[in-house]
Design brief:
13 helices; 401 residues; binds magnesium ion; single chain; 18% strand; alpha/beta; three-stranded antiparallel β-sheet
């Protein structure tokens, strides 16, 4: 089964939303603090945090075609400057892969990875582009053998995969409380909320309110987007320990603060989660050796695709560390790719699901058959490859020309 061509389509809502503006990570827009307020210690997130997001939404769909007529579909995380990913796929990865046997996924992965060893290939755009191609190759392999990816990965520990709602929208505490109730009413039992901006007291109050809103209906995950320094992170972890429905504390520190993560993890019984910026097994190895977390958060569309995320998950298991699939502003391709790895690994905790996925512009409207959420779970099936089929007419309306 020889690869004949690879295409990378950028899907974007820019046509509907106008020119791109870059904004803070969504969760850090709140609480809004006014300049000149009494917030003397504003925290680091007001000036430093993990990343920005554009005002519109974009992603990169990658299709690998073969001489058998079969096509595999993958996705690269590409919320900002998606043409960079497109260029890497078209100008770099396509010439390397065309003519190769699409079934040799490990071999092809190493060729793609090695191709950029001299040029900052270890994460970011390059690994995102590789991720998209790798997922397409797995989808293709599944279609070739008529098997779901989870079976090709060695079988499923479970097919009914828990998913959590990625956020609690709203610019006021009351709006966010309502958002929590809405998400719980939709059937989710695990909800993530953001903090990391504003005064320490404001953040405690916000998270306390979110915890109250969830109450005993489920669990709350808390994401600080790298907004604390070590001392405040330890203080905040103490506070979270007192809320009996908080399951993990995510990105408390900037991801580069390795010693800080080690100290934080050793300081609290609360589950410390990090790793959405870690895109290959080598950086994850160092984080694990240094005992920097209890839970890793690799993103299958950033961390080199299904192949590398599987290796990261298996490596984590050696250290007794669990993982949860990070999913961002992307399509069902992303969500499903993570779920297949999750199903095939014994240490997968749960998968993220973009809030409002079912009705969002990249959600079920791009699928011939919508994904079904039941009691906070998505159940994988026997369909080949990723197990989804795109509605090509709906996709075509979002393609950026
Ligand atoms: Mg996060």
């Amino acid at each position: 089964m020889k690869i004949t061509s690879i295409t990378c389509q950028i899907l974007s809502t820019a046509q509907q939303q106008g020119a791109t503006r870059y904004e803070d990570t969504a969760g850090l827009k709140f609480p809004q603090t006014t300049s000149g307020s009494e917030n003397v210690f504003s925290g680091r997130a007001d000036t430093r945090h993990i990343c920005v997001y554009p005002s519109d939404r974009s992603t990169a769909l990658i299709r690998v075609q073969t001489d058998t007529g079969l096509e595999g579909i993958g996705e690269a995380h590409a919320p900002a400057a998606p043409r960079v990913v497109q260029t890497i796929v078209e100008d770099l990865l396509t010439p390397i892969l065309v003519g190769q046997d699409a079934r040799s996924i490990d071999v092809l992965w190493e060729r793609m990875f090695s191709a950029m060893r001299l040029r900052s290939h270890t994460q970011g755009f390059t690994l995102e582009a590789i991720a998209g191609v790798d997922i397409a190759l797995w989808d293709l392999l599944g279609k070739h053998y008529g098997e779901p990816i989870w079976r090709l990965l060695g079988g499923a520990y479970r097919l009914k995969m828990p998913v959590y709602s990625s956020g609690t929208p709203g610019q006021t505490v009351d709006a966010r409380r309502e958002g929590v109730h809405k998400v719980l009413d939709e059937g989710f039992s695990v909800v993530k909320t953001s903090c990391g901006r504003g005064s320490f007291r404001e953040q405690m109050e916000l998270v306390r309110q979110m915890s109250d809103a969830v109450a005993d209906r489920g669990q709350l995950l808390v994401d600080a987007h790298g907004g604390f320094d070590l001392k405040d992170a330890i203080r905040f972890a103490r506070f979270l320990e007192g809320l009996d429905n908080v399951e993990w504390f995510e990105d408390a520190l900037l991801p580069e603060d390795h010693d800080g993560y080690r100290e934080l993890t050793l300081s609290t019984p609360l589950r410390i989660a990090v790793g959405e910026t870690d895109c290959n097994r080598y950086v994850v190895r160092d984080r694990l050796l240094n005992k920097e977390c209890d839970l890793l958060l690799p993103d299958v569309c950033r961390a080199g695709g299904i192949s590398e995320t599987l290796r990261i998950a298996q490596l984590a298991d050696v250290f007794g560390v669990s993982w949860a699939s990070h999913v961002s502003t992307s399509t069902a391709v992303h969500l499903m790719a993570g779920l297949h790895v999750g199903a095939a690994t014994p240490n997968c905790f749960i998968s993220e699901c973009p809030s409002g996925f079912a009705h969002g512009p990249f959600g079920n409207c791009l699928l011939k058959e919508p994904l079904v959420f039941e009691n906070g779970h998505i159940t994988l099936n026997e369909k080949p490859g990723l197990g989804i089929e795109l509605d090509e007419e709906a996709v075509a309306q979002l393609v950026l020309l």
